Amino acid sequence: MAQSFNIYFEESIKKNWELPALSDFKGVAYHYKDIARKIEKIHILFEAAGVEKGDRIAICGRNSSHWAVAMFATLAYGAVAVPVLHEFKADNVHNIVNHSEAKLLCVGDMVWENLNDEMMPDLTGIILLNDFSVLKSKSEKLIEARRHLNELFGKKFPERFTAEDINYHKDTPEELAIINYTSGSTGFSKGVMLPYRALHANIKFCIDNLPWLKTGDNAVSMLPMAHMYGLMIELFNPFSKGCHIHFLTRIPSPKIILDAFAECKPPIIIAVPLIIEKIIKNKVFPLLDKPIMKFLMMIPFVDNQLLAKIKAKLEESFGGNLKQIIVGGAALNKDVEEFLRKIEFPITVGYGMTECAPLVSYAPWNETKQGACGKLCDYMEAKVNSTDPENIAGELWLKGPNVMQGYFKNDEATEAVMDGEWMNTGDLALIDSEGYIFIKGRSKNMILGPSGQNIYPEEIEDQLNNLPFVSESIVIEQDGKLTWLVYPDFENGEKAGISQKDMTAQMEENRIVANKSLPAYSQIAKIKVYYEEFEKTPKRSIKRYLYQG
Description:
The protein is 35% helix and 23% strand. The protein is an alpha/beta fold.
């Protein structure tokens, strides 16, 4: 197996030269040979701008074919990629570009509208992702190179540009590849330094353990590529296998997502729990709640036939070619997971973090356990800081080739989580005798009960989110008691005749019902209703720190 990460996509381009590689959904399909040409042209611009190996290049825009091209071009050149989430506020983008000491910024048109180039004074140039035109430049050479780009490309390859002309940067294990700025639920954005060894460990794991994607298959990319989960599993993995990746360039609403699945028929789908839970809660659970269905489900054999029909209908809505859905970024709702396991729907939950580029644990849907997030990846070691790791949750520590080098220009934050080669994830977990990992919550979120009991708010929230007309919620501690912050499902409430005004009474009723099944030390004392969705991280987990006060 190759030791260089870049060799994976270099070889894929050469091998799949005539096949379609990247498309913006329902847009132009660029073939692997087109991607190779674009990479070479961008390299001409990099050279003109004076970019050297190891220089940082920031990429900020919505998911698109050209975003992916900019990423491949950066790594193939030997520069360090700094992917920036397009949803970040302008001042956050300015700060990341400055903090990373980026030399160039490749930016999407919608992001550029809100930026101020004067706030990023150290940039040599700003390139528009839509067509790779130069928006701003301190270098006349860069402007000239863009103006005569086709001519310069012709001079560089006077005969004919072929697969044999490709020769990308040969990376080494400890060389820095990506600085990925987290926007975690703890609030402080840190630049995670990921060396090539981390990317290599992850891509090799995907090739060895996710066999359903074959050359020529379609893949749908809906997670932000500025986040390592989307970047590794939805871009690097299918590209290395010669697949055709379709980018959902708009905000992926359930309708857009289901349209893409119907058209592309992907064998493997990567998602966050929210998307799957919405489909199940809105389409399946109301059906099962009907009196006639409840009656039929009590009749032997009939119940199995009904469940088989529901499974077939669900698989059809995901494109009809589904081999597996992998959910990550947060836990899957307990009731949803239980139901999907009952009908043997091919879904599994994995676990990862930016600091591990991102994979930590995974198991196929037919091997995993209820409530687990897979088994530790074979290249990693783990330990739980607990006297009884199978029964008493403790902080999860990890070690392996995919662990980050540290946080860029932030020794204090690095020292807070690293102990030699071991890294503290900050997550509380159990590991059973077979090596399955069960995440209980973030150690920073754990609440100490009145008599020293450990209260995991995520577990209570999982229960609360199954109650009628609850969309999402957080449990926090206030004055020694638990408060439930809830954003109700106003849309379905309205359909059921519950006004916004009456929704608080419905939530209060939910609180009373929940308390009947919660232990005495984790009773919900009061509620607070929110009328807008909670603010989210790129992984679609709630930014809890904003609501703790």
